[in-house]
């Protein structure tokens, strides 16, 4: 009531007072929900909707900030402290996993499995080859492969469904730094919730705060006969134009050679067919990575590059659902459909993506991979630069905002 009635009363009292801007303090619960918190989630969702509505009606700059828990104050502070105590890693024998992203299996039980790794730029190409403004940043897709590998080790190997994935905080690592990263699976119904968090490696066992980077769900899928899609039919659907991608027109110096894997695009009005090929010298990656981070990153994000007329930058927000039927291969076709959501005035996008083998065998499906755009305050600056529909292919990638 304080959020809903208070907001109405405040803006009514200020109805004759012109405002330069106003900021509403909402919560991420409006986006993610929470057990037993439907009233709190709804109240904060009201703030988000109010900000959108008033901004459209009046032209004022009104923003609603979806805050996470505050570190030292607020009603979640005590719960957060209790959560950290409850999730201190239990003592016990450790088991090496043998996966490039998941080092050790350190705790297991019927309802919880804990994995630990040490991430450093020198030892992890997902960091060294993925930089934003010169700083190594873990691409969000890395956590999906970590969850898959952990699930295969602790629960069941084979086809999986990963869903309700939300990226919370980027994990940046300096070149001379190491971060301790743990991935935790917690039983939830027939599947598991998962989350990944990190702390400085030098203080991971001490008083350092663990920072959470992603949350999601993972469950096993029943094995099904391989499904094959006619690639010639997809080519016929994508007959508007055709683009050959080379170092001259599609290269990002902030991304390493594994990311330079897109070489051919065919576009329709709201769909495209792309060919991705991992260079021969990196073919050995596929022995360990079922969801190869560079291939999946390009597969998920390429629709945004070539199907959306952008007036600003978009950041990856989350995955509605990803089903992995078989490991990704060195050469794959990407069938992407979607674009900007007109219901949000283009502030969000949604794409459905099929990842196919050379013979059309369906390897993976993505449903509702979402980006969220920066506020319209930055849109004018983008338009002033005079970019056309195809010009962002180079400039947009080089901004570092299309890594997923």
Summarize the structure.
The chain has helices at residues 2-13, 29-32, 38-58, 77-86, 125-128, 141-154, 231-237, 293-307, 379-384, 392-398; strands spanning 22-27, 62-67, 95-96, 104-108, 112-120, 131-132, 135-137, 160-167, 172-173, 178-188, 191-200, 211-220, 241-244, 262-267, 271-277, 314-324, 331-340, 348-356, 362-373.
Order of helices and strands: HEHHEHEEEHEEHEEEEEHEEEHEEEEHH
Oligomer category: single chain
Q: Largest sheet, if any?
A: 14 strands, antiparallel
Distance between the termini: 38 Å
Structural classification: alpha+beta
What is the topology, as strand order, of the major beta sheet?
3-4-5-10-11-12-8-16-19-18-17-15-14-13
């Amino acid at each position: 009531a304080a959020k809903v009635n208070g907001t109405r009363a405040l803006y009514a009292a200020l109805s004759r007072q012109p405002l330069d801007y106003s900021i509403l303090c909402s919560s991420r619960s409006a986006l993610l929900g929470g057990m037993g918190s439907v009233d709190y989630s709804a109240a904060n969702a009201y703030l988000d909707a109010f900000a959108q509505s008033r901004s459209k009606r009046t032209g004022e700059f009104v923003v609603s900030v979806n805050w996470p828990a505050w570190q030292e104050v607020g009603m979640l502070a005590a719960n957060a402290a209790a959560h950290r105590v409850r999730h201190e890693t239990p003592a016990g024998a450790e088991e090496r996993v043998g996966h490039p992203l998941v080092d050790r299996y350190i705790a297991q039980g019927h309802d919880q499995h804990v994995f630990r790794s040490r991430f450093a730029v020198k030892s992890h190409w997902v960091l060294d080859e993925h930089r934003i403004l010169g700083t190594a940043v873990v691409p969000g897709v890395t956590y999906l492969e970590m969850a898959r590998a952990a699930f295969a080790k602790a629960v069941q190997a084979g086809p999986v469904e990963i869903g309700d994935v939300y990226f919370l905080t980027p994990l940046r690592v300096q070149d001379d730094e190491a971060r301790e990263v743990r991935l935790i699976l917690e039983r939830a119904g027939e599947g598991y919730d998962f989350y990944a968090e990190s702390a400085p490696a030098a203080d991971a066992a001490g008083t350092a705060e663990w920072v959470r980077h992603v949350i999601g769900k993972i469950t096993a899928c029943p094995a099904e006969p391989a499904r094959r899609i006619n690639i010639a039919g997809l080519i016929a659907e994508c007959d508007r134009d055709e683009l050959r991608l080379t170092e001259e027109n599609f290269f990002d110096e902030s991304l390493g050679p594994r990311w330079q894997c897109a070489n051919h695009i065919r576009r329709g009005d709201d769909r495209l067919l792309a060919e991705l090929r991992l260079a021969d010298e990196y073919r050995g990656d596929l022995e360990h990575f079922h969801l190869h981070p560079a291939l999946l990153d390009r597969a998920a994000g390429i629709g945004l590059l070539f199907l959306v007329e952008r007036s600003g930058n978009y950041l990856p927000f989350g995955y509605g659902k990803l089903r992995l039927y078989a490991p990704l291969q060195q050469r794959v076709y990407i069938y992407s459909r979607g674009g900007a959501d007109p219901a949000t005035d283009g502030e969000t996008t949604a794409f459905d993506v099929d990842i196919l083998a050379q013979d059309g065998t369906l390897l993976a499906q993505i449903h509702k991979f979402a980006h969220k755009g920066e506020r319209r305050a930055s849109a004018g600056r983008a338009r002033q630069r005079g970019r056309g529909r195809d010009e962002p292919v180079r400039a947009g990638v080089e901004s570092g905002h299309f890594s997923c």
